[in-house]
Amino acid sequence: MRRRRWGETGLFVFVFLMVFGVICSNTAAEMTSSFHGTFESNFILRDADGLQHGFFDEAYGVQQRNVLKFDVDINPGIEWGPFRVEKVHLTYRGAYDSIFDLAAHRYDIKENLGASRFDYGLRDIRFENDLREAFIDFAYQGDSGTGFFRPGRQIVSWGEGMLETLNDVINPPDQSYAMFFQSPDDVKTPLWMGRINYSIPRMPGFGLNFDLLWVPDIRPTQFAPLDSVVGNRSVGLQAPYMRILPFVDFKGLNVRQDVPTSENEYGAKVSADIGNRFKASLVYFRDVVNEPAVYVHLTSQPTAFLTHPKQHVYGGFFGYQLIAFGTEAIIRGEITHYTAYPISLVSADNIRKIEDGQLVLQTFLLKPMTKFTLAVDKDLRIPWLSKDLTKVSVEWLHKVINEWNNRLDNRWYISGTTKTRQDRRHIREQDVILCNIQTYWLASKLNPSFTAGYNPGKHGEGGTAMIAPSIKYYIQPGIYCDLKLQAFFGDARASWGFANLINYASDATFKIGYEW
After folding, report:
1. Quick one: DSSP state of residue 243?
2. Is the pTM of this model over 0.85?
3. Which of 6, 229, 302, 344 sits a CA distance of 20 to 30 A from 395?
């Protein structure tokens, strides 16, 4: 397991004592509970050079992950007038990835990697044994409205995007074992926090809700092993999913994470229901940026420091049920402005500066960035495809770097003595068009879906695309198998989009599971 601070251990003990005390103090009350979960076993086969260069012609396994996950919800039945203990919630996840045994020659990672408490070692990505969520809801329902106070380890999602939930910066992503289009809660890192949610009494055609967060548990985006090992400083980067991330370029470097754990994050969301068909929210979050900004110290043992700046995040989202001309659809949108987002620089443009007598390369610029999405969700009846309704979603994602710098200009640069052309720089404005189609066959026992994304090229470069077809079959109630493919195509030297994945990461996933 990751090394934990004494403060985290204390929070665990506090929550468990609180849960134990609440339950024991009310043994005569009507206590109810629920228990549900899943067990899944999956195998991921990767085409090392991408489908664009041949259909799984360089294939190898990158994951054989077996996961047990379950939720326990307890309603102690304790009430004090308008106040009550509404729920005690626990989520457990345990996992074993046998790929590190089946392909030990490929993934030689030491168990005790990590000078930082955020560095993963083999023990963490090979085995998992984690109480992911542990919180208690103290609820109020009275003349002044409704609300709850929720302390504990939890996941909070703000946002409604398909590819990116723009306002969803609260729980950092876990990229140590997965890429896109997983269950959102499964690829987030739970955090200790306090949450207060309150709704004013409902009025005809209008409702107002406030969501307040205080997060003292500061964590970065979680990667697979980043740290180095004396005598073999690249060994920590051999984990399956690390190979496709930008940090693969750090081979031969010591890697350290500098995370401002003494900081606090906090935020608020105000949501309004107007009429029966329109919902809107405004969001603010004081953020320690999850994604790292990297400094490279050029010493006798070069070290990459992954730092995390602070910023303010402002945004909002809306949803509207459109009923017109005999049809119905959901129109939704989301917008977010980040005040200090790390924008990576290519190596030829690193800013060299001297700190304490040593040369430091700054591989990023902090720039304000704005992102927004606009989407339509529609249920269609397509007789030739399915007797049931087919769900179709189309989404446009747009990104803008608000303050431009000539170091970010879009042009080729020359790398080293080989004089080879390398990746282009950033594009100031970037777009992705996404489409998702889900339908149901055989009385909903067979659920095929298809997701595609396209990033149009600009300034003469080609576009990039992603496809993600899948089909899920319920063998019998509770038992299912799932087949998925995720592949990338287009100009591998494009400055954005899916370009950095085209030549590395086409994955086929084979999964079987049981849910109860």
Report:
1. G
2. yes
3. 344
